[in-house]
Amino acid sequence: MPDAAGITEPGSAQREATGPSTPQLSGERPVVACQKLTKTFKDFWLRDRARAVDNLDMLVRPHEIFGLLGPNGSGKSTTIKIILGLLRPTSGRVAVFGKPPTDVATKKRIGYLPEESYLYPFLNARETLDYYAKLFELDRRTRTTRIDELLEMVGLTHVQHRAVREYSKGMQRRIGLAQALINDPDLLILDEPTTGLDPIGTRQVKDLIIELGRRGKTVILSSHLLADVEDVVDRMVILYGGKSRGEGTCDELLNRNERTTIELDELDDDTVAEIDRIVRERSGGAKSILSVEHPRQKLEELFLGIVEKARSERLGTSGAQHGAGTAAFLKDGANAPREGDELIGDLLAAGTAPLPAVVPDGAKAGAPAQPQAQGDRPHDLIDDLLNAPADTQAVAPPSSAAKPAPGHDRGGTGAPVPPPPGDFDDDVIGSLLDGTDDGSDEGTGSGAGDRGKKP
Amino acid sequence: MSWSARLGALDRVQRSRGFKIGASIAVVVLALVVAVGYAVYATSGDTSLFTVNIPADIDPEARAAIERRAETLERIVSAHNSVGLVASATAIGAALSLVVIWIGLALTYLGLIVLAACVGLVAFFVPGLRDEAVVALGAVALAASFGALLRGLGLLFSGPGPVFAVARTVLTEAVRMKISLVFIVVLVIALALLPVVLDGSQPLRYRVQAFLQYATGIGFWTVATLVLVFTVASITSEQRDRIIWQTVTKPVAAWQYLLGKWLGVAGLAAVLLAVTGSGVFLFTEYLRGQPALGESAPYIPAGSNQQVTEDRLILETRVLAARLGQSPTMPFDLNGPEVTRAVDAYIERERRQRGNDWEPTSDELINIRNEQFNQMSTEYRSIDPRLEGFEDFLFEGLQEATKSNLPITLRYKIDAGGNRPDQFYALAFEFPDVAPISRPEVGLGYSHTITLPAGVSDEEGRVLMRVYNGSLAPGPNGLRAFRSNTGTVTIPPDGLEISYDVGSYRLNFLRVMLVLWMKLGLIAMIAVWASSYLSFPVACLVSIGAFLVAEGSSFVRESVEYFGNNDPDGNFQLWRYVANLVAETVSSIFSVYSDLRPTDRIADGRLMSWGEVFAAAIVLSVISLILYALAIVFFRNREMAIYSGH
């Protein structure tokens, strides 16, 4: 049934075209719906000059973090401006919360951070936030509380009385982010939110987006910084030349199912050669180890570590201070993470001891670690590896049950394939494993080396 | 820390609640100390001011008289030094101080008081710098008033909601951005300097009139220019710099945004006008208290045989007054029988030339009637010395003047020949029961005035006046000898007027300021409308152009009458027709605006009645609303992400 903007949701045929992992419609109206959206810019003589958006179909569903990717000039910002009513579409339809983009009441639920911080230069940070808060008709007490929390969150409390024109670009982006959140929006539209921010600020923005997503907010994130988008979005669309060139979840778009990566402690060359031999033997020569390299720590992790160390040593800075956690009014108590006695009580009631948390392979830096599921315990897999008969053990495909549900697990690869038993040198296998489920390193023979602790 | 940061820190301190509470307590305690302290002093001990030493050997009756006199003097002086009076003054001072504290200007005013005290000290010790000290003190006082009023307006706009939020941001922008600050400083300095440049040797009435004219005019034009440029800059710069994106993507309707902009600018204009008006009014009152020409002291003529000097009389009755004027009643009207006869005669003459079947069209008939009426009016107002040499004029509707029993003013102007500046004509004016008034040398082409006694109007509010084109002198046997001028004099349509005082100058001044503010409100709306769809330079041009057209529309209307559709050879010219049409249309739209002339009225002591104020409010509001509606339509249809085609 068409909504107020005359847009009907795509039928099931269209949903199937985007892949099996496309979230099933639960009857909720999409937050943003674009149908054959086109925007052509004309010159003074009304001649067509540039087609910035070309026949774009796009749906942003409630409670998801949606990424708008593309190179410069691909139509990302133009699409966002049409959604916000800053531009009118040449053809096609747009609906935001089921209403046209120009509907004033709908804007109470929207927060927007443009690609540059367009702020009143003569106002200071507090006055800026107060002005925007008044536009939402917030009462004085609410305004004061939220402004204090937001300034603390973005780390600008100590410079709140300085005029915005004196701020660095990063500081202006922070205050821009704060104004986008002043109304605790249901839909947050961020256009290049990490521009001008240092890695810590970037990390904080990403954490904030994840937090907001966890709270059930809908976020549209536009960026050409792929790493930033990859870390946080549930679904994304990739634009080029104003057209959609790809759409889906991160896993659908990024997973390379034709390859397998196994991360181990450091191995010597002989062990690697042995594994390669096994792989060749099992695949009949069709497969082999393609590359062996040491994984690299992300530069972001290194940077954050250095800064954290400096902070702990209480070194001073005259720039933006790195803010406190998410502002209290943006957090939702019902969905707040469980802690302490409550967590232990729940787990004891379930009859299992708490498992050490692991960061799945390929997980995003800073993403919260996921507790291990029973089926994923390395102990069980290795048992299978060791004990399964060689002639009856089929090469099981990666278990679909182990695949994380889209939108909730931002990492992880498939389970390792259990090898046939009896064909392997236990010493070699033993040298790969610590052999226990409590993380202690017993070692089984030569070549074990120093494996360190499991993450 | 930079000076601006220090000042900002001080501003935050004086706005903080803790400071306000502490300062309020201090003021209240100080006021109580002063009041109670004085009360204790006044009521304890021997506070008599007059100690009389009476010799012991004086006559008892004389002693008693001296003691009674001392007692009387004591009572008189103590009445002025009463505890109640001091307490009231202290309370008023404390109340004003509390107001200043709670609007967040305590430290600012303290600084200004210190500055004023320093300036006063300089003036006290260096007499040669007295004028400069007066200018500086005036500027300080104006700045203090401006600060207080602006802060009060900011408090008024401090509520939630888009309209007030935008309005308050406009006020903040006006103070913190250089463009408006320049205008404000220029205005403050210009007003403070103006009194100093007045020529002290001129009669007091001319100085007061000149000050009223220039101060009000400079104030209005400065504020009007600021309103135009600032409004356009504020709205267009937000669109150009994309700041507006973060406003229009909030729940702010176009009408709210534009109304907020207008409200902020109109409020700023009101503050500036209030400061200007206060300064003008107070200095006018100061000038009024100076000795007029022929006075040894204010209101005290130098000569013993005068009750009041001419300069003082004109100042009080014509300049610092609220006068209503009345032109003479024409003995015929446009559609009356006299004009109809003239029209018929004209048509008859034309038929003799063009043929008997010639019939004028309705437009031609209207033109013929207007021409005949104008011709008859001119003949009526022309006094030919070869004929009777005089003409009678009747003024009606002067009942209020009769009731008030105050002197009335006759203003007259005559044209003759080419109005050569070296030529003078003699005129005489005769009224019933009043001795004729002769003026032997009347300059041509400009107005002159005569003060007439109250009894010149009859009980029905009519004045019958006979104007002689020549001089009247007493002759034998009680008759008068008339000596006529050589040429005809013509009184122009606005050349005769009787005016009389009908109200308070002070209230009239307030009404004039109200009208000026309404005009500024319309100017602000013109700027808002232009900025809603044009870029900064084009919007400035359009706004300033519209403002100049509005100000000059009465001149344009008068000029259009003489411009005509035909060239000097009588050939119809299309471009003249189009120019006339455009000029008439535009000038008629702004006719109410331009006919108000508040500055001229206050300088001439003319009444600006409440009726005219309300009529102006209605008309200007309607025009403003039309422009506002158009601005909303343009603004809503704009694509905010595109500015000037980019």
Question: What this model shows, in words?
Answer:
The complex is a heterodimer of chains A (455) and B (646). Chain A is an alpha/beta fold. Chain A has helices at 12-17, 76-84, 125-135, 140-154, 169-181, 199-214, 226-232, 250-254, 269-283, 299-312, 340-350, 378-387, 426-432; strands at 32-42, 48-60, 65-69, 91-96, 110-113, 187-191, 218-223, 235-240, 243-249, 357-358, 370-371. Chain B is an alpha+beta fold and 646 residues long. Chain B is 62% helix and 11% strand. Chain B has a 4-stranded antiparallel sheet. Chain B has a 4-stranded antiparallel sheet with strand order 5-10-7-8, with no helix packed on it. In chain B, β1 (295-297) and β2 (300-301) form a beta hairpin. The longest helix of chain B is centred in the middle third of the chain and has 37 residues, at 204-240. The chains are: A alpha/beta (455), B alpha+beta (646).
Fold blueprint:
The complex is a heterodimer of chains A (455) and B (646).
Chain A: H1 12-17, E1 32-42, E2 48-60, E3 65-69, H2 76-84, E4 91-96, E5 110-113, H3 125-135, H4 140-154, H5 169-181, E6 187-191, H6 199-214, E7 218-223, H7 226-232, E8 235-240, E9 243-249, H8 250-254, H9 269-283, H10 299-312, H11 340-350, E10 357-358, E11 370-371, H12 378-387, H13 426-432
Chain B: H1 3-15, H2 17-43, H3 60-80, H4 83-102, H5 106-125, H6 130-156, H7 162-176, H8 178-197, H9 204-240, H10 245-248, H11 254-288, E1 295-297, E2 300-301, H12 310-319, E3 322-326, H13 337-354, H14 362-381, E4 382-383, E5 390-395, H15 399-404, E6 408-412, E7 424-431, E8 434-443, E9 448-452, E10 463-468, E11 470-474, E12 480-484, E13 489-490, E14 496-503, H16 505-531, H17 536-551, H18 553-563, H19 574-589, H20 591-596, H21 598-604, H22 610-636
Antiparallel strand pairs in B: 1-2, 3-14, 4-13, 5-10, 6-9, 6-14, 7-8, 7-10, 11-12
Helix pairs in contact in B: 2-4, 5-6, 6-8, 6-11, 7-8, 7-11, 8-9, 8-11, 9-11, 9-12, 9-16, 9-17, 9-21, 11-16, 11-22, 13-14, 16-17, 16-21, 16-22, 18-19
